[in-house]
């Protein structure tokens, strides 16, 4: 009994989180059986088991693999570009007042703009192929990482910076020894937010891809004799 209590105390947060998710899934599955649903509501309501069955059917019929592959490429490439751009730019703007003054207005404006507004523009620039979706993922993920990295650099202890500078360190050494290590917690938070935004943007891009496929599909021609 004591070992069980120790096991629970060591993993209390994980057990409570996982148990609550499992409880919600069970209640979701049992809801149609316990609560009478109207026809209009039941038409758009499904259960976790039906979702699993539909997903398995799509997998068996090879209908989901291609879309999953394309969405994964969009997600990984867009997130990779966001890391390549957002991380160095956040470090540089945090250390340079002039660069911060030039970049900050654009970051503020574009970060406050809904990402899907850029989709028609990206379609005009890059077409309806994969690159327009990659850019939506990129612009959704780059700003959380950039802003959090910037804040991490700004919150570095100035005393440490001055101590390292007093020993003759140049800006690159200060960045390597003090700034980057002290900004790691902020960078990790930015990465977590960027991954979530990239996943949401990838889903939105996938929805737009399906819509564009429907619009570009050949329409049946009525041949009246």
How would you describe what is shown here?
- The protein contains ten helices and no strands.
- With 225 residues, the chain is an all-alpha fold.
- The chain folds into two domains: 2-60, no CATH class; 65-216, MetI-like fold (Orthogonal Bundle).
- The model is unreliable at 210-225 (pLDDT under 50).
Features:
disordered C terminus; mainly alpha; 10 helices; 225 residues; extended; MetI-like fold
Topology:
Layout: H1 2-10, H2 12-34, H3 39-43, H4 48-60, H5 65-95, H6 97-111, H7 119-126, H8 130-154, H9 158-166, H10 171-216
Helix pairs in contact: 5-6, 5-8, 5-10, 7-8, 8-10, 9-10
What is shown here, in short?
With 225 residues, this protein is an all-alpha fold. It contains ten helices and no strands.
Report the CATH C-level class of the largest domain: Mainly Alpha
Total E-strand runs = 0
Oligomer: single chain
How many helices? The count is 10
Secondary-structure content class? mainly alpha
By CATH, the topology of the largest domain is MetI-like fold
- CATH architecture term of the largest domain: Orthogonal Bundle
Largest sheet: none
The CATH homologous superfamily of the largest domain:
MetI-like
Q: Determine the fraction of residues in helical runs and give it as a percent range.
A: over 70%
The helix-strand sequence is HHHHHHHHHH
Poorly predicted runs of 5 or more residues: 210-225
Strand content: under 5%
Let me know the average pLDDT.
80
Give the terminus-to-terminus CA distance. 84 Å
Estimate the global geometry from the Cα principal axes.
extended
Tally of domains? 2
Radius of gyration: 25 Å
């Amino acid at each position: 009994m004591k070992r069980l209590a120790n096991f629970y105390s060591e993993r209390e947060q994980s057990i409570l989180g996982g148990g609550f998710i499992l409880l919600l899934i069970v209640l979701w599955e049992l809801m149609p059986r316990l609560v009478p649903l109207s026809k209009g509501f039941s038409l758009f309501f499904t259960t976790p088991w039906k979702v699993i069955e539909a997903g398995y059917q799509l997998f068996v019929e090879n209908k989901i693999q291609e879309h999953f592959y394309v969405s994964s490429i969009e997600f990984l490439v867009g997130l990779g570009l966001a890391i390549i751009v957002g991380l160095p730019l956040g470090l540089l703007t945090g250390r340079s007042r002039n660069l911060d003054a030039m970049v900050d207005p654009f970051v503020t404006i574009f970060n406050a703009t809904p990402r899907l507004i850029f989709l028609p523009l990206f379609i005009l620039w890059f077409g309806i192929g994969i690159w327009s979706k990659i850019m939506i993922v990129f612009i959704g993920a780059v700003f959380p990482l950039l802003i959090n990295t910037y804040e991490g650099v700004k919150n570095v202890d100035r005393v440490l910076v001055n101590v390292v500078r007093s020993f003759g360190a140049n800006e690159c050494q200060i960045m390597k020894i003090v700034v980057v290590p002290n900004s790691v917690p902020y960078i990790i938070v930015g990465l977590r937010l960027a991954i979530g935004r990239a996943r949401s943007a990838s889903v939105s891009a996938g929805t737009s891809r399906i819509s564009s496929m429907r619009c570009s599909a050949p329409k049946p021609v009525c041949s009246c004799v």
